[in-house]
Design a protein that fits this description.
With 397 residues, the protein is an alpha/beta fold. The protein is 41% helix and 23% strand. The structure holds 3,4-dihydroxybenzoic acid. 3,4-dihydroxybenzoic acid binds next to helix 7. Residues 1-25 form the signal peptide.
């Protein structure tokens, strides 16, 4: 019997008996539903996430443990109702094995009940509100929590001449997290927060808020704005002469996003931020990642969103391998918990208890690299293996 005939006979018999041989079952593709804001105000986030996920597949091959990995990208446009509907469709119609992406907190939260009901891992590659991982036991995060960045910044500031601060954040989950954890840590170190300002998430006009900061004249303004919004804020800060008036600009790394940093020009020089990823992170793994990302994307530089997607794909690949390509949702989830490896950002672990990421948070200053004339977030200090401070505080209560 020729091989094809033999296979045909087996398949026929299996179909007759209502069984699919396991070798055939494994040929079913492993589907990853990627929900991303590809259009609208947050399109830069979607573009970075998609590029990084595709780079990972390109570098590591699209067959893992006998399963062909298929990425299905959906544009959620940054709107939670659309994200929920698309997640539903991906689960029911496409029968995806994993949901991933989630460029904003409300999008990750919208899909969470579906992940729970369907027992499907939801890999949060971008959103940063600390409580997201509590919305479903199937959520695993590979981005960052805002308290990781904000609390690290709040420790540094009072040791560096900053005693009086105004906070200015986007008025939604990650902004409120950044504000609260900055205040708590900064006050405990003797700092004073004299005003807390919250600006709308959608189409913000920073000018009245910055004017208020200028009138108050603090030592520094601590800022959280989502990826993509930093350039407008920095421009207006300098236009108002706030830097010349001696007010320092500090924040989480969203402010000096690697994607947009060069476009900010000299205005961005000297801004200090704390975060988990810089394109200038000095490691061999990161150099390779940055070079490959730029090569595959017309010179575009990866930002902290990109590393969340790249590592998210790594976590998915490792879980497929660990379950030999046969794992259902709960088995994949179990394989992801406790995973530890060297990412281009530095060493990372998926906390087996919280499913959140444990990682280094770096302090960085924007500088111009004389070698290529470009602006970078240059790391000058590190807080190692930082667990999400929000969950740590809850545990200790
Ligand atoms: C979130 C979005 C961002 O663009 C960012 O930089 C950080 C957090 C969020 O919605 O969670």
């Amino acid at each position: 019997m020729k091989k094809r005939q033999f296979l045909g006979a087996i398949l026929g018999a299996a179909a007759f008996a209502g069984i699919v041989p396991s070798a055939m079952a494994q040929e079913k593709p492993f589907k990853v539903g990627l929900l991303l804001p590809m259009t609208g105000q947050f399109a830069t986030t979607g573009r970075q996430l998609e590029a990084a996920a595709k780079l990972y597949v390109q570098e590591h091959g699209d067959v893992v443990a006998g399963r062909k990995v298929e990425l299905i990208v959906k544009d959620d446009t940054g709107v939670p109702d659309i994200s929920r509907r698309q997640a539903q469709e991906l689960l029911v119609k496409d029968k995806v094995d994993v949901l991933a992406g989630f460029g904003l907190t409300p999008l990750a939260l919208a899909a969470a009940p579906l992940a729970t009901q369907s027992k499907t891992p939801e890999i949060v590659m971008a959103a940063g509100t600390a409580s997201i991982t509590e919305a479903s036991p199937y959520i695993v995060r590979t981005s960052v929590t805002l308290p990781q960045g904000a609390a690290t910044m709040a420790k540094w500031a009072p040791e560096n001449g900053i005693k009086k601060v105004v906070t200015l954040v986007s008025d939604y989950g990650p902004g409120i997290d950044a504000e609260q954890s900055f205040i708590e840590e900064f006050k405990s170190k003797g700092g004073e927060v004299v005003e807390t300002l919250r600006v709308p998430l959608r189409n913000p006009d920073f000018s009245p808020f910055l004017q208020k900061v200028r009138d108050i004249q603090p030592d520094a303004v601590f800022v959280f704005v989502p990826s993509g919004a930093g350039a407008a804020l920095v421009k207006q800060f300098v236009e108002r002469g706030m830097d010349k008036a001696g007010i320092r600009l500090i924040g989480t790394g969203d402010l000096t996003d690697d994607d947009l940093l060069n476009g900010m020009g000299d205005d961005a020089l000297g801004i200090i931020t704390a975060y988990h990823y810089s394109a200038a992170h000095p490691s061999e793994a990161n150099k390779q990642f940055v070079d490959a990302f730029k090569k595959a994307n017309n010179g575009m530089r990866p930002n902290f969103m990109a590393i969340g997607a790249y590592d998210g794909m790594h976590v998915i690949y490792e879980a497929i391998k660990a379950t030999d390509g046969k794992g259902d949702g709960p088995a994949l989830l179990a394989a992801m918990k406790g995973l530890s490896y060297e990412s281009p950002r530095g060493p990372v672990t998926i906390d087996p208890e919280t499913r959140d990421i444990i990682q280094n948070i770096y302090l960085r200053e924007v500088k111009r690299d004389p070698a290529d004339g470009e602006l970078y977030n240059i790391e000058f200090d590190v807080a190692e293996a930082v667990k999400d401070p929000y969950k740590e505080a809850k545990k200790n209560k």
